[in-house]
Amino acid sequence: MSTDHQADQTPTPRYKPYKPYKGAAGGWGALISVAQAWLTSDNALKNLRMMLKTNQNGGFDCPGCAWGDSPESGMVKFCENGAKAVNWEATKRRVDAAFFAKHSVSSLLEQSDYWLEYQGRLTEPMSYDAETDRYTPISWEAAFALIGKHLQSLPSPDQAEFYTSGRASNEAAYLYQLFVRAFGTNNFPDCSNMCHEASGVAMAQSVGVGKGTVTFDDFEHADAIFVWGQNPGTNHPRMLEPLREAVKRGAQVVCINPLKERGLERFQHPQNPLEMLTNGNKPTNTAYFRPALGGDMALLRGMAKFLLQWEREAQQTDAPSVFDHDFLNEHTASVLDYLGTIDDTSWEQIVEQSGLTLEEIEQAARMYAKGKNVIMCWAMGITQHRHSVPTIQEIANLMLLRGNIGRPGAGLCPVRGHSNVQGDRTMGINERPPAFFLDALERRFQFKVPRENGHNVVEAIHAMLDGRSKVFIGLGGNFAQATPDSPRTFQALSNCDLTVQISTKLNRSHLAHGKEALILPCLGRTDIDLQTEGTQAVTVEDSFSMVHASNGQLQPLSKQMRSEPSIIAGIAAATLGATPVDWNWLVADYRRIRELIADTIPGFKDFNQKIENPGGFYLGNSARTRRWNTPSGRAHFRANILPADLVHERTRATGQLPDLIMQSMRSHDQYNTTIYGLDDRYRGVKGQRDVLFVNEADIIRLGFKPGQKADIVSIWDDGRERRVKGFTLLAFDIPAGQAAAYYPEVNPLVPLESTGDGSHTPTSKFIAIRLEAASETGLIMARSA
Ligand SMILES: Nc1nc2c(c(=O)[nH]1)N[C@H]1C(S)=C(S)[C@@H](COP(=O)(O)OP(=O)(O)OC[C@H]3O[C@@H](n4cnc5c(=O)[nH]c(N)nc54)[C@H](O)[C@@H]3O)O[C@H]1N2
Ligand SMILES: Nc1nc2c(c(=O)[nH]1)N[C@H]1C(S)=C(S)[C@@H](COP(=O)(O)OP(=O)(O)OC[C@H]3O[C@@H](n4cnc5c(=O)[nH]c(N)nc54)[C@H](O)[C@@H]3O)O[C@H]1N2
Ligand SMILES: [Mo]
User: Domain Molybdopterin oxidoreductase spans what residues (predicted)?
Assistant: First the structure.
């Protein structure tokens, strides 16, 4: 048992001493891994053909990550983990009525996440029968009617939660938000709340737009690229190529990550035979800094402090300016406040909090100052902290000082996760929608749009826990496993009168059901989507704001599966009738949905024509052209102060000192809560996931031995015990005082109340923990005091 609420069938092999991975990222290892996935798949040949049709050649958009490719290259790009995602979705195995007749929900709860998804695609709508504790078949019409009945009988529309995961297409997302707003609420918790929310909030305040300001081509023109808190070798493999090209060209690639991630060190291109035959591999970085968890803001402030010092020296010696004064004068506000805050931040605090030496900070600052055009990329290592918003604003501050926003080869690049998470926001999946968007909806559809902010993920969990929300509908994703404080999230879902999961594969959220519950099987990106007017394309938006079409290629496993837009239309029609639009007419031909998008969302004029272009079209970005959508019309320096203490006061209030600060992260063999396998090749882990990466000296300091099992307990002042049991301690190359473990296994340790200021994102990269002797193994050893 790894956690209190779930039994994990993961085999626990005997501890083998940790052996680091010697190969480059990508390369033979990746090909072997893909080949294994294909050979063990029952659909191998078809999948191979399909894989070659991904992306910009009339095929489907890769359901992996949101990284974009150059629209001009025309080359089919794929990566190991994209191949895994496709293969996983395109299985022939099915989870049908016979499967559910065989397995009760309680027996399924005993299975691991890996086992649940491995059973195959969901192929028919199912409804929960409490008497037999089983899911049994239900017709689509009866399922829609049940949802309509529950929604209509709620005293207030705000008592329903409408979750979205970032794979939903633009068409599905637009229809969903239109339905939910016509129903009367802005309760749109979505995966973005746990992901890049802080980037959106921070950037909107700093530069007036919540999206990245660079496009793919900018990477070719940058002379320095900083990669903060991101593991592209696993999570955005196609990004390694531009990084390697940059190094080859002599640009600086600076990685800031406490772990030495393999992909950031070396990379072999899996499509370059010569490199692979010679086993040659190229470095992907020119410098690597390993800060304390949450220490990035201090490092950034330190870099800014060096710049300010050099700027003052330059002014006294007539040397060239370090700052871009023209840009500062013409385009920015509050720079003096910011410089004052830099002066007020002490070197002692910077060094202490960053976990780096003054020399390292100076080196990082020099690399930044040397770059004429600098790109800064970041991901979850930056966004899942309490002070993520100020940290990202510090990235923006540093970039503004040298005018690194709004010119070729330079800019801000939050690297998105899910393949269409950015598009979903553009389409209005937003619990705090901007007024201009609501106005446009109101004008176009003539109904009174709800104006009050709705619930984000954490607020939705609280509302369901307190009984304020009664219905949960999930458009994809795995809410029960992706969210923090797992036992409470389970309770929240179980409290509901109705839970509805629109999904491709079985997962734990289907087992955390309300009094009544539905599983609605939908088509995925790879499936051919046939509606009454013919085969349909959907559209998605990547991290660089490129919008393009995606066409499924595979015959769906069952006629009973429906597309996301058609399921939403069914629910909407059963709840609202044919108002404010004729839902079923709309989904007969998705071009009709795109017409509505064109009418109401800026940048989508002539949408249907524009997607005829195979590379899609660029949505544009105001900050990129130095137009600042802020109240003052300028880019804003944000004079945030460094946190006085990174450890939360509610942890301090317990009087217990943390043994370690832990981050939760992804292995190489997973896609979020989808577990493809139990290995983490680049980190040298095989056949296990219940592991805690810790520095050997820390293991010994805490009275354990490498390879021994321990319970992990997190520290928070609400009297709840948060514990996961029997994690193997791996002696690992990780900075002292830190630990790392896999998500979602450690989600029970993240307190629901521990969230980012201004972002409400669970602090999944900063969890104060203690280790205790394992409570459920024979290996209990006394702990030294
Ligand atoms: N194959 C695959 N691809 C994916 C996903 C997947 O699960 N599998 N998930 C998708 C999604 S939704 C997302 S959001 C992205 C996630 O992509 P990433 O953000 O790369 O995902 P994580 O595994 O959470 O990695 C976080 C990285 O940040 C580092 N880190 C942790 N804390 C800190 C810190 O305080 N400071 C710094 N500087 N670094 C820190 C960790 O060591 C790790 O290398 O990937 C997307 N792509
Ligand atoms: N501790 C910790 N927690 C985290 C994170 C972390 O780093 N640490 N990361 C957070 C992040 S960045 C994110 S984005 C969230 C992810 O949260 P989610 O997006 O909710 O989770 P996923 O695991 O991506 O969802 C997987 C499920 O989606 C369904 N699915 C797959 N494809 C489709 C499709 O095309 N359509 C539909 N309708 N369903 C589909 C399948 O049934 C599958 O089981 O987790 C967050 N949680
Ligand atoms: Mo994400």
Answer: 121-502
CA distance 651 to 754: 10
Cβ of 765 below 6 Å from ligand 1 = yes
Please check the confidence at residue 238 and state whether its pLDDT lies above 90: no
The whole-model pTM stands at 0.93
Can you read off the two tokens belonging to residue 62?
């890769």
φ, ψ dihedrals at 585, nearest 5°? -65, -40
Q: Which ligand is nearest to the CA of 671?
A: 1
User: Distance from the CA of 478 to the center of ligand 2, in angstroms?
Assistant: 5
User: What is the residue-wise DSSP string for 695-761?
Assistant: -HHHHHHTT--TT-EEEEEE--TTS---EEEEEEEEE-S--TTEEEEETTTTGGGS-TT-B-TTT--
* Pair 189, 498: CB distance under 8 Å: no
Summarize pLDDT for 16-31 with one digit per residue, the tens.
Answer: 445 666 676 666 566 5
Ligand nearest to the CA of 167: 2
* Structural domains in the chain, sorted by start: 23-89 (no CATH), 121-193+420-619 (3.40.50.740), 197-415 (3.40.228.10), 649-784 (2.40.40.20)
The DSSP result for 401-465, as a single string, is HTT-SSSTT-EEEE---BTTHHHHHHTT--SS--HHHHHHHHHHH-S----S----HHHHHHHHH
Distance in angstroms (rounded) separating the CA atoms of residues 418 and 420:
6
Residue 784 has pLDDT above 60, yes or no: no
- 644: Cβ contacts below 8 Å, ≥ 6 apart: none
Taking the C-alpha atoms of residue 601 and residue 429, their distance in angstroms, rounded to an integer, is 13
- Is it true that the peptide bond before 63 is cis, omega within 30 degrees of 0? no
Helix (H) or strand (E) holding 114: helix 113-118
Q: How many Cα atoms occupy the beta-carbon half-sphere of 463 within 13 Å?
A: 20
Q: Find the length of the chain.
A: 785
CA-closest candidate to residue 233, choices 30, 18, 22, 482: 30
Cα 232 to ligand 3 centroid, rounded to whole Å: 13
Residue 231 pLDDT > 50? yes
Q: Return d(Cα 690, Cα 745) in angstroms, integer.
A: 7
Q: What is the mean pLDDT of residues 522-546?
A: 95
Measured between alpha carbons, how far is residue 745 from residues 242, 605, 673, 740 in Å? Answer: 33, 44, 9, 11
Ligand 1 centroid – CA 64 distance (Å): 14
Nearest to 261 by CA among 289, 281, 293: 289
Residues within 6 Å of ligand 2 by CB: 117, 165-167, 191, 194-195, 380, 384, 417-418, 475-479, 482, 502-505, 507, 522, 524-525, 564, 664, 672-674, 743, 747, 750, 764
Q: What is the pLDDT of residue 81?
A: 80
Distance (Å, whole) CA 719 – CA 625: 51
The percentage of the chain sitting over the pLDDT mark of 70, rounded to a whole number, equals 88
Distance of CA 178 to the CA centre of its chain: 24
Q: Is the pLDDT of residue 316 over 90?
A: yes
If you take atom 37 of ligand 2, which residue's CA is the nearest one? Answer: 476
The finding on whether 477 has its CB within 6 A of some atom of ligand 1 is no
Q: Quick: pLDDT tens for 359-372.
A: 999 999 999 999 99
Q: CB–CB of 205/630 below 8 Å? A: yes
For the beta carbon of residue 351, count every other beta carbon within 10 angstroms: 18
Looking at residue 742, its pLDDT comes to 98
In DSSP notation, 593-627 reads: HHHHHHHHSTT-TTHHHHTTSTT-EE---TGGGT-
Ligand 2 pocket test target in 167, 472, 493, 745 with most atoms within 8 Å of CB: 167
165 C-alpha to ligand 2 centroid (Å)? 6
- The two tokens of residue 557 are 């496993």
